[in-house]
């Protein structure tokens, strides 16, 4: 193993020892003495069997595993619309393997792409906790010996895992749906967005461009949070190998889902290959996820999501771990917004099998984790349809070295993530898509409490200068930590004009954050007393990703004497008032910004 990866892993194991032990004790008790079908009374079982006729006799005879399907299906969102037929297909495939399957429950799936820049976005992060709770409810009936988790986008996969890991004695497999085929290139889409921000094109042209990019069922094709989710599930060994980026509606996608159903039936506790989710997701799997994130230039949202997933399994990972790994893990992929190719181009060039083979060969991934499928080395092979099934083969050399490079000859020797710290607190910055000439920005601040005010100032020409845009009261306790992706086009326009521009916020950027340097997730957040609340218009702020600092260049005595800004009142409407309990209980971003694990012992 790479010594830096090994050292971080050892640190996480030691830090997590007490909580992880308590978690493993919990799932052992649930396995041995927890609620299961043989314990249920006849009336209880009758209720559970009443919704099915075809499988009732098999369930009654307890002939095999009953698989619970937890689905995020809806047909308003492209990524989840693909799941429409999955349950009925999986029931057939379960019967092929001597098992049965039932839809245990549904979880909400909202889209940041739809709500971006609007009030609904303030529900987005806490939809993850809602999904976790919904998953727990779905699995609470004691009717299932395993589960298939059908989810793909930003908060859905983390939420499914957070809930499912509390039932970690059950074997479970994540079942993705795949990305839509390539439409309008992401770079061309971004150019139209910037032109619209400048008033050079109208709404009709912008809408046509957006529809050209987002045009069919499947995930968006840029390498944002949704597709980073799928990368992480591969490097954690929670998919059937190679399942991440096969397109919907293909024979390969169908066979991968069929294989997942068959595999679930084989890894239950009645057999000799028991693979419970809580054992699969261990400290080494969490480190693999972090390494994969850094090696591929994935979404900054996972600096929040991965700590929350880890906590659900009794594991603690922090930003110091990410920072240390980033300095040892090479960047082997360039996928938009860190390059010009989309995830389909990435898949064609070798995709996750190539990445895993390279990182495993370089000692950067733990090869001894328990996966849902077999040996972790199997994830370094490419699935191919053969007859009425699958075979796996070596992915060969990179099909395009502008997209994928071997670990021995990477795009960068480092993973492109930094922690920033100073009198403005601690923050994260993703620099893999930022020109190194812009890793250090020093400019006067312009302070805002709402992203709409930033856009208004831009349109009025008030930001046409060197500027550090500070957007505060955007943390989980203040307003649910919405993404601020709507700020990317205007800030990009300012940067294109030659100005020195940066964003500093206690909120989130999109998983598609790119060329503008952004210090995000500032902690502690302003509502909790964070020092970002002391910044005033005109203060010179220095963001230095080279030195790892984030400072307001204000006299220390004056800084100490300043009072924090007054928080605006909580917003109402669009259901935001219903989530006051979540906002009040939310942890800091570095702990996962979750309400459901706040104060938890494990």
Automatic annotation (TrEMBL):
Cofactor: [4Fe-4S] cluster
Location of the Dihydroxy-acid/6-phosphogluconate dehydratase N-terminal domain: 66-375
Classification lineage: Bacteria, Pseudomonadati, Pseudomonadota, Alphaproteobacteria, Sphingomonadales
Originating species: Sphingomonas panacisoli
Cofactor-binding details, from the entry: Binds 1 [4Fe-4S] cluster.
Catalytic activity: 6-phospho-D-gluconate = 2-dehydro-3-deoxy-6-phospho-D-gluconate + H2O
Residue ranges of every copy of the Dihydroxy-acid/6-phosphogluconate dehydratase C-terminal domain listed in the record: 403-593
Protein name: Phosphogluconate dehydratase
First-tier enzyme category under EC: lyase
UniProt entry tagged with the keyword 4Fe-4S: yes
Gene, per the UniProt record: edd
